[in-house]
Amino acid sequence: MTGGQIAGLIAAIAFLVLVVFIGVFLTKMVRTLGEVNQSIKTMTDDMDVIAKQTEDILANANTLLDDVNHKVATIDPVFKAAADLGTSVSDLNEATRELTGKVSSTAKKSVTSNLVARAGSAMFNAYRGRKSKD
């Protein structure tokens, strides 16, 4: 065997080793891609199920929200009436305070003028009584 043939044999063996490694690599890569593909299919199926369940939940939530809105609209007049009643009670309390203040000030004036009148009458009677003794 000549040097060129030995170099050709070494190159052929190196090429064979390279082809074997590439073949093993490609085989493993195909297997991995198959597993990834299966995982993606499983995830897609799971996502479809989750999406369907989410749609059902959202539909139920919309129905519930419509029901709550209807009931709130039914109850709104009750709260309006309660607010009006609160305003009326507040107005009544204010009017009662004003009336109480007027009655109280009138009563104080009346008591004061009665005391002054009685004191004046008592003093006049005392003065007359003294004058008649003289």
Automatic annotation (TrEMBL):
Name listed for the protein in its UniProt record: Methyl-accepting chemotaxis-like protein
* InterPro entries with a match to the protein in the record: UPF0478 (IPR009293)
* Lyase recorded as keyword: no
Gene3D superfamilies named among the record's database cross-references: Methyl-accepting chemotaxis protein
What SUPFAM superfamilies does the database record attribute to this sequence?
Answer: Methyl-accepting chemotaxis protein (MCP) signaling domain
- Superkingdom of the organism of origin: Bacteria
- Transmembrane stretches, by residue range? 6-26
Membrane as UniProt keyword: yes
What the entry lists under Pfam families is as follows: DUF948
What does the UniProt keyword field contain?
A: Membrane, Transmembrane, Transmembrane helix
State the coiled-coil residue ranges.
Answer: none
Q: Which organism is it from?
A: Secundilactobacillus similis DSM 23365 = JCM 2765
